[in-house]
Amino acid sequence: MRARRRTGLVAYYALGLVFGTLLVKGELVSWFRIQEMFHFEGIHMFGVFALAMPVAILSVQALKRSHARTLEGEIVQVEPKTMGRGIRYVAGGLLFGAGWALTGACPGPLFALLGANAGGGVFVVPIAAALLGTWAYGVLRPRLPH
Fold it and tell me: Global pTM?
């Protein structure tokens, strides 16, 4: 089981490396592309987002139908999403968007940004902020309306 887990982790790291490279080469982590999107001056990012939705839908359906398993051997299960009140989505979206617009860095590819920039030390700040925000959510989660 350990050998299988190690092999699986190596595969995940390799896929992460390929995905990060695609993000960088496709200019999806470019500060200029992100600013271009927020100023509605280019369609590059919007086109990627439009393609991401069908890819995500097809991927989740493939996971469900193939009865894919985790490294521990458990079947991957996607729990149905329960929708709540709109205010938390609006507040969360505004907070996320404000951070994204101010830093020019989406939280998803932060490590790709760090690895892609030779003088990428500046991305340590958004990474630290993302980790702090994740920690704060974990602490406050029991008190938040879910």
Answer: 0.60
